[in-house]
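Model the whole thing, not chain by chain.
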Amino acid sequence: MILLQVIVGGLLLGAVYALLSSGLTLIWGMMNFINFAHGEFVMLGMYAALLTVLWIGGGPGIFGFAAALALFFLGILVYFSLIKEVMRGPMLAQILSTFGLSLLLRYAAFWVFSPNVMTLPPTALAGTIDLGGILLTGAQLVAGLVAAVLTLGMHLLLTRSRVGSQLLAVAEDRNAAMLMGIRPDRMQALAWGLSAASAGIAGALWAISFPFSPAVGETFALTAFVVVTLGGFGSVPGAMLAGLIVGLIQALSAYWLGPIYKDVVVYGLFVALLWLRPQGLLGTV
Amino acid sequence: MKRWGLLALVAALLAYPWLVAGSDSAAFLQDMGALVLLSAVGASAWNILGGYAGQISVGHAVFFGAGAYLPLLLYQHWQLPPLLGVPAGVAASLVIALFVGFPTLRLVGHYFSMATIAVAELVRIVIGNWDFLGAAIGLQGPATSRGWYDVIFRSSVPYYYIFLAVLALILLVTWQMQRSRLGYYLGAIRAGERAARSLGVPVRRYKLYALMLSAAFTSLAGSLYALKTGFIDPDSGLGILVSVQMIITAALGGAGTLFGPLLGAAILVPLQTATNTWLGGSGSGLTYIVYGGVIVLIARFEPGGLIELGQRLAALRQRRRKVVHRAA
């Protein structure tokens, strides 16, 4: 029964990974660009949630929304102030831009929020739920389900909506899209906004049940890299599936081998993947 | 003109410890000089891959760590002179470079950066939990010198000259590389991988050569660090900030230029020392905020670094002078 509980917990965690990774993979699919600051966006989502609770109050619905909104605008800001320009520059500039941004955000957060580990005040979701013998906290359950719904929503937005078609058109051929009356800059900015918002809301969902500090970003970024690689670059359904798998692997390795090995196993999986199947499960290179 | 400039630079570097010997804080300035050179060694090693070949590694700490850990490991467990660990570190780095580079270098650009950061983090966590390698506490070198082979000196001056010699070696190799087939191939790869491949450049093989060359020298930088400090732990040897230091130093001066890394080191090391002395312990956090900001600014406005900026300004001035001449 404990094993079953670990599995369900891992899948719920995996849904949060899927959400934040779908943001990363969206940017890759749009413009062949890896955002090294994505983990810091997740971290900022946590602090946005914390500040909302402290200043305004309210439950997970409110601070989750606030985190998504704050990060959405941050994503757009980052696109227009930085990414738009470096996309024209050499590869060095592209990679260093978000890598530098990640350092800047991480250490600025250390400076502003102190390196102390923080927790959100207990919410209405704090209680434990018994699902036929599987004990889960309400926060875990809600975070996992909300993340799964949002990831699915992202997929539907991309494949079924007008905006999604426009986004994909820009990804396919920037110039052709422009000739069709789509403004590529707006679409790419929107993609950055959506990507950052997905990271922010994933951070807020995570923060309901786990403590956090400014240093968490790196772990999230690396986990998202693994998920995106496993799922195939640019594929949101791939990220969804891979997120669940990574969450499951993490939970099981923590259970069988001990908590310190959960990241080791996941990063090891990444290295193995590079050798065996660099295009991911559902992707093509 | 250019030759005289180079000669002056060499003379200044050779004379530096003596020039500052008379000042009140001679020991401090000599130590800082050694640190500038050490930082330049690491950045020049990164530059071979990141600058010349355009493959941005953000996990070079792995190679630095291999070079730093092995010498102290030999001492810690078998009391062997740390010097013996230096070639072992280089060998280990070459193996890691092959292991990481072989699968990732067939993919373009960002993928390689991502892989390097993941491998570096994996190695850091594993070593941080491995008692044989000192776990979180780290490894220590000999406390007192047992002979020349321990490479322990009370003054920073011998270290300064050792670092200078290694830097000279790296720059010489880089200069030779620049003028050889390898250099031209790497330049072509950096400018456009697909175009290079279509012109018959064996892209993957040459990227791997650059990675191995870069890894070997980075390992050397790690060894020098460990020999001088006599101590290494997962953060100082394998942390992401070790990689950051190399990247920012090379990129600030000018990635893909011979003397860019040295210029970057000559600016950043004193700056870092200054913030640490003025602001105390809290200064280190501020240093990395500034580092992040500087990296973003370089990427956004001046990807060529200061050397390219200087060349452009010089060209501008020359053109203006010509215009003035013509007007007169």
